[in-house]
Structures are given as C-alpha cells and as structure tokens.
Amino acid sequence: MASLWQGYALPGIIILLQILAVMLPVMISVAFLVYFERKTLAAMTLRRGPNVVGPFGVLQSFADFIKVFFKETIIPTGANKVVFLAAPILTFVLAMIAWAVIPFSEKLVVADINVGVLYLFAISSLGVYGVVMAGWASNSRYAFLGALRSAAQMVSYEVSIGFVIVTVLLVAGSMNLNDIVEAQRTIWFAIPLLPMFVIFFISALAETNRHPFDLPEAESELVAGFQVEYSAVPFVLFFLGEYANMMLMSALTVILFLGGWLPPFDVAPFTWLPAPFWLIGKIIVLLFVFIWVRATFPRYRYDQLMRLGWKVFLPASLLWVVLTAGVLVTFDWLPA
Fold first, then answer.
1. How far apart are the C-alpha atoms of 128 and 207, rounded to whole Å?
2. Which of 19, 102, 117, 329 has its C-alpha lying 20 to 30 A from 25's C-alpha?
3. Domain-embedded: residue 120
4. CA angle, corner 149, sides to 144 and 152, nearest 5?
C-alpha cells in the first residue's frame, strides 16, 4: 500500500512543484510589469511615476495589491452572485493554465505536448467566456455593453490569429512548440513571414483588450466596461488575468516568430547565456512595445476596429496562407 501511495504521490508532488515554479514567477512578474508600465508611461509623458514605496517605487504594485486585497468585496443587489464571482476566477485560471505548454528552453516546460499550439488556441478562445459572464452577471448596462464588445472583438481577431498560426505550422511542419522553435535555428520566422508577424502582434493587442483596442473597457463611454461593478479580490483577478495574458501573447509571439529561447546569433558570447534568458529578454522587449503603443496611439472607434479585423487582417492572412502553401509545394520545401 505504501509503495502504491508513493507511486502516485511522488509524481503528483513533482507536477505540483512544476506548476508552482511557473505560476509564482508569472504572478510576481505581473506586479513588476505594472510598475514597468507606470514608469514607462510616466517617462513618455514627462512625469515621475511611482517613486515612494520601496527603492525607486519598485514595491508600489505590492502595496497596491495589499490595499485592494483587504477591501470589501461588493456584489450588486441585482447581480447573479455565483456567475459574478466565477467570472474573474475563470479569467485568472485560463490565463495561468495556458503557461503549461510554454517552453522556456528545450527541456524546461511543464507539459511538452505535440499539440501545444492547438492547446493555446483553445485556451485563448475560452477567455471570452469570463468577460461575457462578468458583463451579464453584473446586471449593468455598461458592463453588458463592454462584454458584448469584447466578445465580438475577440472572435473577430481570433480568425486572423488562426490563419497566422496555420502559416507558421506550414513552415515548421509541427504543432509542438519545441519543434517550432528548433525550426528557426537557421532563420527566425519573423523575417520570411514579416506581414504575418505584424498581423499577429496587432491582433494580440486586440485579443488582450489593450490600447488602442481597449474598447471593452473604454472609460469615456462605458466607465470601465465589463469590470465596472467589480472591486477588491475579484477585480485583482481580472487585473492579473489581463496582464498575464499580455505576457502569454508576448511569449507566443516570441516562440512563433522570434526564435523562442534561441540566441540571435549561434556564436559566443550569445551562446554563453542560458536559454531562458533569451526567451524572457524577448518577452520584455515585446511588452515594452505593448506599453509604447498605449502611450502613442489614440483609441480606435468600434467600426474601425471591426473593419481592420474583417476587411484587412482576414483577407491578408488568408492570402498569405495560400502564398506560403504554394511556395512550399512549388519548391518542394514541405517539412518531412
């Protein structure tokens, strides 16, 4: 009986430790990402940003979390309490479990599955449910309109994201994220697939409801969109989910187009640095672009958002899939 318990318990403990080894750094990174965003936006608009709590204000995000954590959770009288509280939990859980297949190096990954891309696409598609549940359960017109906007926006841009991923899979010949990274040892896919790289990154901005596509949370007309009735811990879960999704989409962009953990040049001193360093460094660069876009571009109107997704990105990504497949078949470059 003891040996049977050890046979099941030991692998379970190892898996639990692997999950914690990914989740804890991601959650801590969210706090530093918020600080990084506030300082970057402050620098771009000639302000100081957080500079009181901790050295250079680096602990400001942790202070904000502690303050919000001890606030009262207020549930509107007419709200569906179960769905109202389940929505932020669903959003947070989906943002976390997607990291299970992200490879930080050739062997440093929680679940190295052969359909990693399909898994990520399925998880990202489920993200809209948390937003719709929050908007409907809040029993507020502002929240409901924000949820409907988010649903239409995410569905619209997931179509172009899907075609972009198909293009990458055609070139790499595998749905395993490790294999996709290894296929870029000669050249990063961002170079031959540059239009797809641009479309994917802009679609990632829309998918994560980030500026200039943050229409579901547009404070000028919807107050705060689908999360207008949330406070305390439920609001923090939405907040963590949004920023974890930013990091996730940046990581996916790096893996699909920027060589993942591979260094830019396969020579010393680039090869001396550990593989996770390159992946994390590239993610930080893309996160800076996320913030840079927020400080630079005005918010799109909703009709402009829909037109860009359906009349520009969808035809362009579909055309590139056909061109890529045609070139691969014509020159017999199909992967074995």
1. 9
2. 117
3. yes
4. 125
